[in-house]
Specification:
- By secondary structure, this protein is mostly helical.
- It has two domains: 129 residues, Four Helix Bundle (Hemerythrin (Met), subunit A), CATH 1.20.120; 142 residues, Orthogonal Bundle (Helix Hairpins).
- Helix 2 packs antiparallel against helix 3 and helix 8 packs across helix 10.
């Protein structure tokens, strides 16, 4: 009888503790306080890139313990262990807190030390969970991953195709293997139409460099300069592709990549955003 009564008392205490934790974590002042601490933590991380101080380290340690208390309260307030770990945000927050407790003195390898510091910087991302709108955006990006994967595959196929075509049309002769008049014409090209930047290799000299060049054109950087440089190279007899072919290549790639492929990604994100917003509207209507 006594053991049964003791077990009942423990169960009641657990229920009371869970109810208290739910009450605290559900309060607006708790959420606003955590947001303020996250903002302070994020600012101090930026300050530490300029200088470190014992006071800053102390405040960061205090913030780490506050985050630990927050995680503990959310764990107690959860319906079960499974429900706690089923939330990606809880796992993310717990991982950052655990990483924060790893002392740098235990890390001897310089690469591991750098990785540890980089992971701690990810505490700034805790700001993403402070707003429902931000959470909705993250949900949209996660749901768009599968659609974007196929878009990325399509993009890789086209960039690979255009890279090979670019090498075939625009690869310049290797200055180490040419001589005489051809070397003089190459040096003249580098004088009046050098690579951008000047210390970069031939934009279409290799497959990897060609793909990077096409990605650079996608961003809109120097793609017209590349076109003019190729026309100059043609006039000097260093490449065989005439200006018409040069124009068709660069314009068609820019239009395809910048207006079609990127818009496919944008369309997938917008479609998933609308779906998420519709689900949220249905949930509000049901509640």
């Amino acid at each position: 009888m006594n053991s049964s009564s003791a077990f009942s008392d423990i169960e009641n205490e657990d229920k009371g503790l869970k109810a208290m934790a739910k009450t605290i974590t559900g309060k607006m002042w708790f959420e606003m306080g955590i947001i303020a601490i996250i903002v302070i933590n994020s600012l101090l991380i930026g300050v530490e890139t300029y200088q470190t101080h014992a006071t800053i380290t102390l405040v960061q340690n205090i913030i780490l313990y506050i985050f630990s208390i927050e995680i503990g309260l959310r764990f107690i307030a959860s319906d079960s262990i499974k429900s706690f770990f089923s939330s990606g945000w809880n796992v993310f927050d717990l991982s950052l807190v655990l990483i924060g407790f790893i002392p740098e003195t235990m890390v001897e390898n310089a690469s591991a030390m750098m990785a540890l510091r980089v992971l701690r910087v990810f505490r700034v991302l805790r700001l993403l969970r402070t707003s429902r709108e931000m959470k909705a955006i993250i949900t949209v990006l996660i749901r768009s991953t599968s659609a974007m994967f196929y878009n990325v595959v399509l993009f890789i196929i086209f960039i690979y195709l255009f890279a090979i075509i670019g090498i075939s049309l625009f690869r310049l002769p290797d200055p180490g293997t040419i001589s005489g008049d051809e070397l003089q014409r190459y040096e003249k090209l580098m004088e009046i139409a050098p690579h951008a930047p000047a210390n970069s290799p031939d934009p279409f000299g290799t497959l990897g460099e060609s793909m990077f060049t096409l990605f650079r054109e996608l961003t809109g950087e120097d793609w017209t300069d590349l076109r003019y440089n190729h026309i100059t190279a043609y006039e000097l007899g260093l490449i065989k592709a005439p200006p018409v072919v040069i124009n068709i290549f660069h314009i068609s790639w820019f239009v395809l990549a910048a207006f079609l492929l990127l818009n496919l990604v944008t369309g997938a994100i917008i479609n998933n955003y609308q779906t998420v917003m519709d689900h949220k509207g249905d949930d509000k209507a049901d509640s």
